Amino acid sequence: MLEEDNSQAGNNSATEKSPEVAADELTNDKTANLAESGLDSAYLTPDSSDDPESTAAAETSEHQEQLQADNGEIKLGTPALLQVPNDGTEEQAAASQTATDEQSQEPSLEQRLADSVAISAPKAITAQQSNNVQRTSSFSANPIKTGKINLKTITANTLGPREQEAADEPVLRGIHHLFNNRFSQAKNIFEDKADKDPLYSLGLGSMAFLIATMVSQAIFFQIYEHDINVALETLTNAYNIATAQISATKTPLSERFSNYYRSMTSKEEANTQQEPQAEFLSNGTMRAHVIVAESCLQTAILQFLQESMFSYMKGALNLKRSYKSYNMAWQEFQKMGQQAYTLLDEDTISGIQFGIGSIHLLLPMLPTKVLKVVATFGWTPDRPLGISMLKECAAKKRVRAPMAASMLLAYYSILTTFAPQVLAADNLQPAIETLLESQQVYPNSSFFLFFAGYTSRLTKNITLASQSFEFARDIAQGELAAVEFRLLSQYEMAYNYLMTTNWQKAAEAFSELQKEKYWSEAFCNFAYGACLEALGERTDAILAFAEVPQLVPAKKRSKMSGLDAYAIRKVETFQASGYQDMDFTMSALEILCINNLFCMMEPDVLHDCLKLVDKALESIIEREKQEYEIRMRELAPGTAPPNYFDQRGTLLLIKSSILNSLHYYRDSILHLNWIIDHGVAYQSEKWLVPFACWEAGVTTWGLEEKSKSIAFWDRALTYTKYDFEYRLTLRVNLAIERALEQGVQRPAPNQPDKGPSTNGRSRMPKSTSTTLPPDDEE
């Protein structure tokens, strides 16, 4: 059994040992908050240099000196939430003291994460003080040009590898501008030859792709329509130009036969000491094939993020095209052997590594139905190979290096937030290492600051996460993507407020987002009402809920997102009872439960949430008691008996998720059994059973019954057509993949999966019962 009590003690110990920082030079409230996050004050001195390049170099040099201050290699420790301290014996206490002394000399994992955020602190402060005017729309004032390309003017690319590298230097500069938040400069460079060179066009498409995908992170993977259209159009242009270059270099059939005949007859010539050199595709052709593949890959990712089966199938087709080009390029690369590094330019080689590495990370995330289609490609997911190739690509510091680092961080940080109970132990350390390496090269990048924010959440450091999101917003002020980053920061801050139960701040954030009309108006208004309800302002909450259905016209509901559908369904349920059942719901906590955020919250906050859930459960019991007393006194054949299965099931799922996050695994067993046993009784909350199967897997995972975890997660995949199906599918697939990598045996399909025992208890405990200590303390 996993020592969960020790893990909890480790959390408390880590909290007590948070490093102190000097705050003498802090000049405003934002920098003062940095001291609370454990950031070194050396990073907080505003930079007086006006030259962005020299400023970036100075920050990088300063951070490298900080890292070199330690003798030898820095040893990374385990984050506080995952530490397992000793059991209290004298020998173990002495060992613990020794470890503490070592940690005081070496930066902890959390301190290194704080350092990575601090790299961008001076720039964020300077940007905030500059008071740049923000545009109302990023692309309306300075739109990306996506005009039609005259493919008849595209000619074959005859440049050699070294000539190509020299010709692509502007693209490399554009990429550096892009990842240092100089979006307008990057855009100008890419647009210069975007109508005739596929790499320039791909750079422009990648820019729009990054903005669209980063914005989509904040909204349950629902992409803003304008951003995705811009990205798709520019990527299509890159695809068409590269395809035209390939067509222009195709050898006529007569010339192929002539070349073949010469190669055969040359073998018979006398006095020939060398065998004829093998003929390979030219560098220009290989470069075009890689760009075709990458355009299709990014298009597929955008389509996968739209979360519908139709978009998934379109994404699978584009992934197939991408695979076909990458596979051809990979086979040609292997055929070249060591000559590849002289026959190909560095950006083409790193493009092959980026593409193949990305596909190997992407495949396991797809729904089972799509995976069956992808299986026909002939590739099976190989995560270690994918990570290795992406790391090699990132290390070369060429055009695809920051994209490769972003792909790694998307896996290590964003995807880990889907299933931190299973993934965090292995992914936190490489996430922070990748962040530090990337931010030394791109210290002004809002992209990497958002990754730092997501990673900070995994360590339960919500203060540092908020700093990261705010810095990302401030650094982007006045730039092309300022609006996107401002709204994304606002959305992530709203969730941080929810995770600290700061309902007032969360309500203000969601209200502002709804007024912006940028993402899902219906959901933002629903979340706003949920926060007002948590504050006890029921009248205002009801007024907010009543507006939700009006924000999605009836004629658009057939194509509305799952996010809108969820918000409207919840409000219609409230309206069906005349808002008389509001005491039986905790909508704000339900949002946290759906997003699997309880496991990233502090224990004290979780205990407060438990009290709220128990209070709502008591309200249901009291209402049922009143209704049954009436039925005992009067005949009521036309009145339906009390039916609060949906409300009770939702509250019990929230409670189970909180208990699992506190490592009270056995306390959650009875609640999860009740939810699953009453699956047929739910009228509107069809998502409860599959989400309960996920939590049951987390429970058995914590109890070291990991084969049962896979059985429960496999069962979750059998359910369809419920709210956030694709989100849960991704979470489950990631967890199963990691479990199988760890050697956990998958139960046979026909093997009955008996769940954890309730130890003979047959009655559901009272909602007000005191929670037992963690299972490991028994």
UniProtKB/TrEMBL annotation:
Bias (Polar residues) ranges: 7-16, 756-772
Signal peptide: none
Pfam families given in the database record: Iml2-TPR_39
Biased composition (Low complexity): 91-102
Annotated stretches, region: Disordered: 1-112, 741-778
PANTHER family reported for this sequence: TETRATRICOPEPTIDE REPEAT PROTEIN 39 FAMILY MEMBER (PTHR31859), TETRATRICOPEPTIDE REPEAT PROTEIN 39C (PTHR31859:SF1)
Protein name as annotated: Inclusion body clearance protein IML2
The species this protein was found in: Mortierella isabellina (Filamentous fungus)
